[in-house]
Amino acid sequence: MIKDAFQDKALIAFVTAGDPTLEKTKETIKEIVDAGATLVEIGIPFSDPIAEGPIIQEASLRALTHGVKVNEIFEMVKELREDVSVPLCFMTYANVLFHYGYDAFLKRCDEVGINGLIIPDMPFEEKELKESARDYDVNIISMIAPTSRDRVKMIAKEAEGFIYLVSSLGVTGERDKFSDNLKDIIGDIRSVTDVPVAIGFGIHEPSQAKAMAAISDGIIVGSAIVKRIGKHEPLYDYVKSLKDAIKTA
């Protein structure tokens, strides 16, 4: 279950499935889990990933160029589950689910051990998928951006699994500055739910990880990991440095 990732401060890592190959993705996920990741987001490559910055867009393009298919990603996860027990979530887009079929997609998630879905372009007001997901023990993860306080509370009240708090307006990518009202937003969230809150978008240095973990239940690191994968750089020491940083937050 997703709550297992939040026994202590959670380190959530993102990878793009199929970049550079699905076999390599499987090896990478094992490596980052061994280094301390407590939940892994697996991005399903999409041709128009509107929430993503250049680094993850390029990773999606590389994977699509190699011909990665959704069913192959499901099979990769099924194999991965023989060695990895931490919660796993897909990050994908509404078109992918619509094309595959909501029930068929959710059924496969349940079968292979996917615990949650993050769908950046699906509005909060869309309830059909969330209602169907309850039948398959899959959480639909809510994303909250620095926005109106009334909307924050409205989304948080119905959140499940964990809440993905976007650190800043815009797309993914390494940042040096974050919104200055994150602590206030988390206070609003806490006033209506005890669902864990993890901060993502832009975190790439241990000092940033520690600062963001100090005000939340965990952090999400994506572009910095995907960039290293694209450059064929080792990940273990980098991910461990993030984990070590948040232990003292």
Considering the chains and any ligands shown, give keywords for the structure.
11 helices; single chain; eight-stranded parallel barrel; 249 residues; 8 strands; alpha/beta
Strand count, sense and barrel status of the largest sheet are: 8 strands, parallel, barrel
Number of helical elements: 11
Structural class estimated from helices and strands = alpha/beta
| Strands side by side in the biggest sheet | 1-2-3-4-5-6-7-8
Q: How many runs of DSSP E, i.e. beta strands? A: 8
Please, what is the oligomeric state?
A: single chain
Looking at the structure, what is the overall shape? globular
Helix content: 40-55%
Mean pLDDT across every amino acid position: 91
Give the strand content: 5-15%
CA-atom Rg in angstroms: 17 Å
- Order of helical and strand elements: EHEHHEHHEHEHEHEHEHH
Unreliable stretches covering 5 or more consecutive residues: 170-176
Give the terminus-to-terminus CA distance. Answer: 24 Å
